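sanity check this record:
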Amino acid sequence: MTNKNTDALVDMVLGFYLDGDIIDRQQIERELLDLENKYRLGIGQVLVEKLRKLATDRGL
């Protein structure tokens, strides 16, 4: 993936995560952790923690 594609993907995930309800956010978290387990990216849990903090900071 190119940086442009990666940026677009991050924007989409962030948008869906922040616009969704708790069920949507939990599903996105599960998908990120599943991808982590499948591909051993080394960042899945960190991404989930950052998304949770961002949602908390926004009062979600």
Summary: The chain has a mean pLDDT of 88. Helices lie at 3-19, 22-39, 44-57.
